[in-house]
Design goal:
The structure holds 2 protein chains of 2 kinds. By secondary structure, chain A is mainly alpha-helical. Chain A is built from 17 helices and no strands. The longest helix of chain A has 30 residues, at about 55-85. By secondary structure, chain B is α/β, with parallel strands linked by helices. The radius of gyration of chain B is 17 Å and the shape is globular. Classes of the chains: A mainly alpha, B alpha/beta.
């Protein structure tokens, strides 16, 4: 059996386990799906009772915009929570420190908010200044983000409660939201979706906390946030950010870039109102974000790079494996999402996703081509496979439509 | 030196090796030749570049300049042949976490010359790893992770073996078994190791070298 097959066999064997061990990524994926579902569903928009505020097209655009904001927000938050709040691989070490976990979490989430809001405001103001963002929607945009943050905090509170009472209250909260959605029949989908978001966020935070919930004292209660504790816990974080400006700025730049892309996309949607441009920009954006997300999810060899380099194998071999495994991963996820979207009648959204897939695979191929040591036969193989992927994707769309 | 080269005794030859990260020079113009098989302990203070040197010799990283040769196989001109001749033990966060030890061994055996399955069973049994051969790597204890990496390295049929902190996390019994295995292997290959807690008594058959960055050379402590 070849190296590749050995790798693939082991990878697939543990694939399902891994999916469920990374709940936060699953939640992110669902949020993304939700964003697109809402954005494409004009019927839902009408039921959301926004009709008095906007025309039908505007509702669609607003929801598209909201979906995108959610998508980007959850993506950034996933990254930030994973890397900063929970310390990534340092989470176990952080949990071993004599700091009550809920203090740490609260203060760090506040820090995240403080860090993010000026960036959002700056980007919005810049866009408004250069005329890409209409002043009328400026307030709406701010509202959107406050709304998102508030949901995030509500999710946090819910998850905190669930730790204390072993999920019973959490379940009760969800039931309450469900009841609310039934009571407000006009806004049925709105509340249902909000409830789903809330549940997902709570689950996301809960699962992201890894094993740290054990370190919460039984008599702990939220928020119990005193200034002394806030400063005690947050000061090392602030010092870290001050001492490592490069790290902070690079992250800020990255966040700003994503926000900028989203707002540019939204602006293009608002200005042109032509679907072809909208889809093009969306495809680009989706490809961009998917690149980071999927690469991280499937390219587990990143940390093993040094080890693999020390093996007597051509580096093209690893790259070829990388491409094939990423392709399989893409096809798997896109297949699931595509089936769901098309069965729900969102063919256009599915097409956007498939375009993103194709672009991503071509980008990977290009990355390979641009390497100094590529071999021509591998180039032929990779391009051939790209064409096959494209054909499969379009065949899939045709059959399902 | 010319006589040694003429007679072809050189096993591992390091010539004018340089490596920097950003603006920090870690290895500066380092040259050393290992002419015979055996066990070599590398000493040196923290940050002097011991692990970097291992990564460079192991082919995990490329030097900025300089050459590495094992039995005349150059790391730059014959990278694959060179890598077949050397086996570097990675850190426990550098192998696939989703593979079981047996899957890792199978993987490595496809990538480089490796001893047969019977040897895997034998060495795993000796080190007490046998019951955990089908457990995911990331679910193993620190000691068993280290044992997996040791078996993987010990069973690679290479001329040079590089072990960075090989006994960290191992219980005393496993350490003794490992040292026995190391002594056996040292008769056929060059084994370089870094062990901060090692004493001369623990490795009686070892020669000791000191890496000194300021002077940019490997100093043979035994010849002092």
């Amino acid at each position: 059996m070849s190296l590749f097959l050995l790798f693939l066999k082991a990878r697939i064997r543990h694939f399902v386990k891994e999916i469920f061990s990374y709940h936060w990524k699953l939640c992110f994926g669902l949020m993304f799906l939700y964003g697109f579902l809402v954005s494409g569903n004009e019927q839902a928009a009408i039921k959301m009772n926004f009709a008095s505020l906007y025309s039908s097209t505007e509702i669609s655009q607003t929801l598209m915009y909201q979906g995108l904001c959610w998508f980007v927000f959850s993506f950034i938050l996933s990254l930030q929570v994973k890397t900063e709040v929970l310390g990534g691989s340092a989470s176990v070490w952080l949990a071993s420190n004599p700091i009550p976990l809920h203090y740490r979490r609260w203060t760090q989430f506040f820090l995240l908010t403080i860090m993010n809001l000026p960036i959002i405001a700056t980007v919005l103001m810049s866009l408004e200044f250069i005329g890409l963002h209409e002043s009328g929607s400026y307030g709406l945009a701010i509202f959107e983000f406050i709304y998102m943050f508030s949901f995030f905090y509500i999710g946090m509170i819910v998850s905190q409660i669930s730790w204390l009472v072993r999920r019973r209250l959490w379940a009760l909260g969800l039931a309450g939201i469900w009841l609310l959605s039934l009571l407000f029949k006009d806004q049925y989908i709105y509340y249902l979706a909000s409830g789903l978001q809330l549940a997902l966020i709570a689950l996301f935070i809960k699962s992201s906390s890894l094993k740290s919930s054990r370190s919460i004292p039984k008599n702990a209660w939220f928020p119990q946030l005193r200034l002394k504790n806030f400063l005690k816990v947050s000061s090392p974080q602030i010092l870290l950010l001050i001492n490592k400006p490069g790290l902070l700025y690079s992250r800020m730049f990255f966040i700003m870039l994503i926000y900028l892309l989203v707002y540019l996309t939204v602006s293009v949607i608002e200005l042109t109102s032509q679907k072809i441009y909208v889809y093009s920009v969306l495809t680009g954006l989706a490809a961009f974000v998917f690149a980071g997300y999927m690469n991280h999810f499937f390219n587990s060899r990143r940390s093993s790079k040094l080890w693999l380099r020390s093996m007597p194998q051509d580096s093209n071999h690893w790259f070829c494996q990388d491409w094939i495994i990423t392709s399989i991963g893409f096809l798997f996820i896109h297949g699931l999402v595509g089936i769901l979207l098309i069965s729900l009648g969102y063919l256009n959204v599915a097409i956007v996703l498939y375009q993103a897939l194709i672009q991503m695979m071509m980008l990977k191929a290009l990355q390979w081509i641009l390497r100094p040591s590529y071999e021509s036969w591998l180039l032929v193989v990779i391009l051939g496979l790209s064409v096959v992927w494209i054909l499969i994707a379009w065949l899939f769309i045709l059959v399902w439509s | 030196m010319h006589l040694i080269r003429f007679l072809g005794f050189r096993v591992l030859e390091i010539t004018s090796l340089n490596k920097s990260y950003s603006n920090t020079k870690v290895i500066q113009n380092l040259s050393f030749t290992f002419v015979s098989h055996g066990l070599y302990g590398i000493k040196g203070s923290n940050g002097v570049g011991k692990s970097t040197l291992f990564r460079l010799i192991g082919g995990a990283e490329d030097p900025d300049s300089g050459t590495l040769r094992i039995h005349e196989k150059c790391s730059v001109r014959q990278p694959l042949e060179y890598r077949k001749s050397v086996c570097w033990m990675p850190g426990d966060d550098q192998v696939f976490p989703f593979m079981t030890p047996i899957e890792i061994f199978n993987f490595v055996s496809k990538a480089r010359p490796f001893l047969p399955d019977t040897e895997i069973s034998l060495v795993s049994e000796k080190l007490g790893l046998a019951p955990f051969l089908n457990t995911r790597f990331d679910q193993l204890s620190t000691g068993n992770k280290k044992k997996t990496l040791l078996v993987m390295t010990l069973l690679s049929q290479s001329n040079v073996m590089l072990l960075d902190e090989p006994t960290n996390g191992l219980d005393v019994e496993s350490q003794n078994v490992f040292k026995e295995l190391l002594d056996q292997q040292a008769k056929q290959k060059i084994i370089l190791f870094i062990d901060h807690f090692a004493t001369d008594d623990q490795y009686p058959n070892s020669k000791w070298l000191k890496l000194d960055n300021d002077l940019a050379f490997l100093q043979d402590l035994d010849s002092k």
